[in-house]
Amino acid sequence: MKTICFTGHRPIKLHGYIREPYLPLVEKLTAWIIELHENNCAPTKFISGGAQGIDQLAFWAVSHAKKIYPEIINTVYVPFKDQERRWRTNGPFSQEDYHLMLSKADEVVYLQPELTDYGQIKKALFERNHRMVNDSDYVIGVYHGEDFRTAPNGGTAECLKYAIQQNKKITLIDPFTLQLSPVLPVKEAQITIPEFQGQYRFLSNFWNCPVTYNNITFLNAEAAYQAQKCPDRMLEFVNLSAFEAKKLSHKVALVSSWDNIKTQIMADIVYQKFLQNPELRDKLLATNDAYLVEGNNWKDTYWGICNGVGENWLGRILMIVRHALKQ
Predict the structure, then answer these.
(1) What are the backbone angles phi and psi of residue 178, rounded to the nearest 5°?
(2) N or C: more exposed end of the chain, with fewer CB within 10 A?
(3) Rounded to an integer, what distance in angstroms lies between the CA atom of residue 171 and that of residue 178?
(4) DSSP string over 39-94
């Protein structure tokens, strides 16, 4: 039997206490759970933590998957009895939802008796997370924000850090964009490349090299990426430097839902950059298992990290591409 657990944010970091905005995420999780189960040769057990937010959404996604594969085991690890006593009576993530969840679970594991002391409660929540990780082969983190490795130790970030320490396989899903990204194993004494300058300038999208994307060839990955913001004006970016392309991108009307598709587009373009340029591919592979960080001083905390804060999506994409090119 393969066991998979979930960790993720509370409603305050998501869509709050309104049910409808969560439906696409539950649908995505359900499809993924079905795929994971189909790829497994034995029955699959899924563990969620019972808390408000992702824990409960994951449970219901597993419940939907069980309608197709009844042999799936849906388990809840409750950190302490009566954890729901201060929740609202009804509505999303309410006591009513919680009791319905427990009634439909295949297994409910209570880890602690009823607790009232805040310090004990906080400790019990961390211990619940660690128990789920210890009892699982694979961890799914529903996570949005700066790289959890450098984030403060909130519940989700701490759980993911613990999973890395335990050498667990981890995949993240962004609850807003619904994009999946594997977390590659971190080795002891791993080298960090903190910025894409000097000998590592080739990692930057501003590096001059031809990149063909959607049958159009650009002078660099930055131009290829910026051109996707406005398909009607895409050809205007073909002969632009990276700086010129970024400047022009501020003058075009963005394609609808850009924020939801930009990370996947970036990943596709970065992959093509290294696939189409063998000398750059070899240089990327030569970074071995170094942790890649798009360190910057221009306050880009989405694609990179500035002053220790940021999601480092470009660095993460480069590491994913490197891993794919090794195969």
Answers:
(1) 65, 20
(2) C
(3) 12
(4) H-SS-EEEEE---TTHHHHHHHHHHHHHTT-TT-EEEEEESSTTTTTTS-SSSTTS
Clarify whether residues 137 and 98 are in a common domain. Answer: yes
Task: Give the DSSP letter string of 131-193.
Answer: HHHHT-SEEEEE--SS-TTTS---HHHHHHHHHHHTT-EEEEE-TTT--EEEEPPPPTT--EE
The parent domain of residue 106 ranges over 2-183
On whether both 155 and 209 belong to a single domain, the answer is no
Among the candidates 128, 160, 183, a domain finishes at: 183
The terminus-to-terminus CA distance of the chain in angstroms comes to: 27
Average pLDDT rounded to a whole number, residues 266-284: 97
Other C-beta atoms within 10 Å of 317: how many?
A: 22
Mean pLDDT estimate for the chain:
92
* Cα radius of gyration (the chain): 22
> 159 and 271: one domain?
no
Residue 36, C-beta contacts closer than 8 angstroms, at least 6 positions apart = 4, 44, 138
- Pairwise CA distance, residues 316 & 314, whole Å: 5
* Cα separation values, 173 from 7, 112, 169, 296, Å: 11, 29, 14, 25
pTM of the complete model beyond 0.85: no
